[in-house]
UniProtKB/TrEMBL annotation:
A single GO molecular function term of this UniProt record: catalytic activity
InterPro entries: Endo/exonu/phosph_ase_sf, Endo/exonuclease/phosphatase
Domain Endonuclease/exonuclease/phosphatase: 8-119
Gene it is expressed from: Dvir\GJ27107
One Pfam family of this chain: Exo_endo_phos
Lineage: Eukaryota, Metazoa, Ecdysozoa, Arthropoda, Hexapoda
Lineage: superkingdom: Eukaryota
Name recorded for this polypeptide: Endonuclease/exonuclease/phosphatase domain-containing protein
Length: 467
């Protein structure tokens, strides 16, 4: 179990063109949460990272500009909070569960060409220069940065600046550390911070019966493992016995499953590159570090040339891996039926997205508009069905709303109730009622628990006592 929570931050200046490098960066540094700004994504562009969940906040204009993304590991215990997609702010936030408590993690992008003031950043806990200090001081927030420049503009006449940093609150300084890296291609250096706390992980689902399992072997293994002479004396013994039984069932299932089922998943297998690509990656990182130290234009030109070469080699490597997978795919068990899996994936029909018309005769263009149109349609279609007239419904409502009227219990009321009941149901035993005696069989007696029975008994006893 990892004892650290690793967060990365990077201004990508367009994430899709550097997606392959980002995948290598996430795997190399084992990043749990990656905060990316200036992603340049919109509704027609998709971003997927193997093993990560993507939370986006694109620019509201729908063009490739601005934007923020949070990439969180799939096994990390977290949940999505909200997104802000205004013209001057794009923010995506998640909540992570740790032993220190819940930690809110957010990626934000604020365009530099829009004037900032303290009032805007009181709710975002972010600002620039003096406004940053004025906004963070009242809320006791702090800045976590390397203290060295992280932005090196392509225009060499511009001065490098430190505009990439983390803002934190409520986390002890002793558990935080930050450093810059040189692996990604952009005019901004990525930052990597470490929180010395173990984030909660979502346990992997354990499947009991796998395809191709030997059921007879599973039964034999389970019979040999189960011990029926388990002594249970307390609640703790019951819990321990149940856990032992579950472990024995899973152990028997693992022994009965075919060997190829338990091979390492594709995401956990080490990815090998050609010696040329590995050498180019190392050279690119060394040149970037040297340029940051010396600001030599010659080194910058060489670095950009090597970065373009690395980008092309990564595309070629991915293409070769795909070709190799297609060549080795067969329809038998030797390749785990890879050909059938690939064909079923590509033959799957995409769910059509039919155009939806809104009540005002305009077309729904966003998921929120489609949801609103669907809600209006349901409201129009499903209405209460009146089974009675309007007057009867009003009378029933008046009766239900009227206060409960109870009459006063008197001897006369009891006698009238007894007489009314006696006309419908025979009495039992010898009962004196208006000078007459009546004998009833025991089988005709009313239930002893009925209210009428109690009322009759009370009336009879009163009459007998009076005589």
């Amino acid at each position: 179990m990892a004892t650290q929570l690793r967060l990365g931050s990077w201004n990508a200046r367009g994430i899709l063109q550097n997606a392959n490098e980002l995948k290598l960066f996430l795997k190399k540094h084992d990043v749990d949460i990656m905060l990316i700004s200036e992603t340049h994504l919109h509704t027609n562009l998709y971003l997927t990272m193997e093993g990560y969940v993507c939370y986006r906040a694109d620019h509201p204009t729908g063009r490739a500009r601005g934007g923020a993304v949070v990439l969180a590991k799939q096994d990390l215990a977290h949940y999505h909070l909200h997104t802000v997609t205004s013209s001057d702010t794009q923010l995506a936030a998640i909540m992570v569960e740790t032993p220190l408590g819940e930690i809110l993690v957010a990626a934000a992008y604020l365009p530099p060409n829009i004037p900032w003031n303290r009032a805007e950043f009181d709710s975002l806990a972010d600002s620039r220069g003096t406004a940053l200090h004025e906004a963070l001081t009242p809320c006791s927030a702090q800045v976590l940065a390397t203290g060295r420049p992280t932005h090196f503009p392509y225009n060499r006449q511009s001065t490098p600046s430190c505009i990439d940093f983390f803002i934190f609150k409520g986390i002890p300084n002793s558990v935080l550390s930050v450093r810059e890296e040189y692996d990604l291609s952009s005019d901004h250096l990525p930052l990597l911070t470490t929180i010395n706390t173990a984030a909660q992980r979502i346990p992997k689902k354990r499947r009991l019966v796998l395809p191709g399992s030997n059921i007879q072997r599973f039964k034999a293994e389970l019979n040999s493992l189960i011990n029926l002479n388990t002594q249970i004396l307390s609640v703790e013994d019951v819990d321990a016995a149940v856990q032992t039984l579950l472990d024995q069932v899973h152990a028997a299932a693992a022994n009965a499953a075919p060997a190829h089922i338990y091979s390492a998943p594709t995401s956990q297998r080490p990815r090998t590159f050609s010696p040329i690509l590995e050498g180019l990656l190392a050279l690119k990182k060394r040149l970037r570090r040297e340029y940051v130290r010396t600001q030599d234009p010659t080194i910058d030109r060489i670095y950009r040339r090597i970065a373009n070469r690395v980008r092309k080699e990564l595309i070629i490597s991915k293409r070769n891996a795909t070709d190799t997978m297609l060549e080795e795919a067969t329809a038998d068990e030797s390749s785990k039926f890879a050909l059938w899996k690939l064909s079923s994936r590509y033959k799957r029909q995409a769910a059509p997205k039919f155009p939806v018309r809104l009540p005002d005769d305009t077309w729904a263009r966003s998921p929120m508009d489609r949801a609103e149109a669907f809600a209006c349609n349901l409201e129009e279609r499903f209405k209460p069905f009146e089974t009675a007239s309007h007057g009867r419904i009003q009378r029933v409502a008046q009766i239900l709303e009227a206060p409960l009227q109870m009459c006063k219990v008197t001897t006369t009321n009891c006698r009238l109730s007894v007489l009314r009941w006696a006309k419908r149901t025979p009495t039992y035993g010898n009962v004196l009622m208006d000078g007459q005696s009546e004998k009833v069989a025991a089988d005709d007696r009313p239930p002893a628990s009925s209210a009428t029975h109690k009322l009759v008994r009370a009336g009879c006893q009163r009459r007998i006592g009076a005589h």
